[in-house]
Write a structure and sequence with these properties.
By secondary structure, this protein is α/β, with parallel strands linked by helices. The protein contains 10 helices and 11 strands. The protein has a 5-stranded parallel β-sheet, with helices on both faces. Strands 4-7-9-10 form a 4-stranded mixed β-sheet. The protein has a two-stranded parallel ribbon with strand order 2-5. The termini are far apart.
Length: 248
């Protein structure tokens, strides 16, 4: 059919660690280079969670070199996915905060399981960190300036009905219909000639992609200087403690 499915399986919560991001980019590149593959459906193999976002442990108590390597991998994931020539459909079968939301936002179409317990959003502000400009640009391009501005400042996680109302996700479906719906949407997108769709996608997304490409090193330096601040390290440590308490 020319359609691949990528299932995230990095227990417990598919957090975007350096290893996960590296593997993700390699898999995506392989599919891009496969002439027979025209589309990819992204989903999770772990119940109730699509991806919990960036792995906090990669940003806490590590070296400057490590922060740089990690951030470059985050950039690479977004550049490849947002700029992909393939049709990309996110089949969001669980909650998707922060970096998980970015993965979904970077796709061409988002279908989410209709479960009010699941939520999605760029909630970085809640952790005392700031979503970078390219996270923001991707978000604005999906939901518009006003919704993005309020949501980013409040670090909101939107329950599925609200996410759908804002256009953060395109469709809600019952869990048992998710894969079927993703395949139907994919078929609709693949009914068009690839070249026309690809050129249109590039035209719509190029300015945003180019902005990161032009400021990539600067963006890495910004991340390092921000994340290595003692106040930020402290709030990340507190957040990790809170997660540990939740688990126990």
């Amino acid at each position: 059919t020319g359609v691949a499915t990528m299932k995230f399986k990095s227990p417990p919560v598919n957090s975007l660690s350096l290893d996960f991001l590296t593997e993700f980019c390699i898999s995506l590149e392989k599919l891009e280079n496969d002439r027979a593959c025209r589309g990819v459906i992204l989903t999770s193999a772990i119940p109730k969670i699509f991806s919990s976002g960036l792995d906090i442990t990669e940003m806490c108590g590590k070296s400057m070199e490590h922060y740089a390597e990690f951030w470059r991998a985050v950039q690479e994931m977004w550049l490849r996915l947002y700029g992909s020539n393939m049709v990309t459909v996110a089949a969001v079968n669980g909650s998707s905060p922060a970096g998980g939301c970015l993965v979904a936002l970077s796709c061409d179409y988002r279908i989410m399981v209709e479960n009010p317990k699941f939520s999605i959003g760029l909630n970085e502000a809640q952790l005392g960190i700031v979503a970078p400009f390219w996270f923001k640009d991707t978000f604005v391009n999906v939901v518009g300036h006003r919704v993005a501005e309020r949501s980013l400042q409040l670090g909101s996680l939107h329950p599925t009905p609200e996410a759908h109302r804002f256009g953060l996700v395109d469709e809600l479906v019952p869990e048992d219909k998710l894969q079927e719906k993703a395949a139907a949407v994919m078929a609709q997108w693949l009914a068009l000639p690839d070249h026309a769709r690809q050129l249109t996608k590039s035209m719509m997304r190029k300015a945003v992609l180019d902005r990161l490409v032009a400021h990539r090193e600067e963006d890495i330096q910004n991340f390092i200087s921000f994340i290595s601040k003692e106040s930020i390290q402290k709030s990340l440590r507190m957040y990790m403690e809170m997660l540990k308490k939740k688990k126990s």
